Amino acid sequence: METVHPRQRSEMIRIKKKHGPRKGMGQHVVLGSKLKARYIDELKFVSARYLNKEIYVRSTDMNRTLTSAISNMIGFYCSGVPGKDYPGKKEAHLWPHGSEGFSIHCFFVEL
């Protein structure tokens, strides 16, 4: 499968989707976990639990960039407490295990 994305008004780029979004999502979860190890576990730069006053995540309003941001944050904040940071008991099996809720702020980019 191949998708065409506008880079500039006069230019188009082709992106081959051999593995679909799964591979990139997995790569972002791994990247998020590495960032967590560095900035939460090692440097204690931010809290282990999500606090919106400590971190601000931005993404363009495109599915692929939003998915990347979400996947990255799932890896970064993966130590949540059921019933406190994400749904507990009845709904917990539907939630990515340990992932906390977080905000992704979108901005519009004119192409």
From TrEMBL:
<dbReference type="GO" id="GO:0003993">
    <property type="term" value="F:acid phosphatase activity"/>
</dbReference>
<comment type="similarity">
    <text>Belongs to the histidine acid phosphatase family.</text>
</comment>
<keyword id="KW-0325">Glycoprotein</keyword>
<dbReference type="InterPro" id="IPR050645">
    <property type="entry name" value="Histidine_acid_phosphatase"/>
</dbReference>
<dbReference type="Pfam" id="PF00328">
    <property type="entry name" value="His_Phos_2"/>
</dbReference>
<keyword id="KW-1015">Disulfide bond</keyword>
<keyword id="KW-0378">Hydrolase</keyword>
<dbReference type="InterPro" id="IPR029033">
    <property type="entry name" value="His_PPase_superfam"/>
</dbReference>
<dbReference type="InterPro" id="IPR000560">
    <property type="entry name" value="His_Pase_clade-2"/>
</dbReference>
<keyword id="KW-0732">Signal</keyword>
<protein>
    <recommendedName>
        <fullName>acid phosphatase</fullName>
        <ecNumber>3.1.3.2</ecNumber>
    </recommendedName>
</protein>
